[in-house]
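Protocol step 4 of 6: structure prediction from sequence.
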Amino acid sequence: MPGAVTVVARLVDVPRVHDLALTVGMALQGFGETLGAYDEFVRFDDLVHVALPMLTAPVVSIALARLDVVPDPRDETHLRHHVGIGVVTLARGISIGALWEVYEWRSDAWLGTRLSEGNDDTNGDLVRDTRGSLVGAALLVAWVRFGGGSVRRIPGVDTHEEVSA
């Protein structure tokens, strides 16, 4: 699953820093699962539930802009626009975390996976997802505020955006 997510982001051609963030997040998830870190280290699940939304919620926002589903973050640069980017990115991250918790719950019932460890675990995961999403939203607002858009930049070449000098 993590590999498929990174391929989709690459196909959408998100900016390099966001591509890297997503790759780091997916590697954390994938290696944690493969190497048994969730079972071996008590707080690994907590780390992942903060890091993944922090690293991926901004990428979802950028990817949707690249697909012309939502406006590009660079279209307007006033305060209300930045607040909107933050709120919507936060909501996307929380929603993805909630969908994951629903998947864990149904996977346990239908496939016998034992991913969910009860209500306390689920609620704690949702709180950590929210914290990570909040940081990710703030990072995306800072990215947009200081000149970043949704275009993947090639070092030394700017063929996709007009810039005013």
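Step 5 (inspection) to follow. DSSP finds six helices and no strands in the chain.
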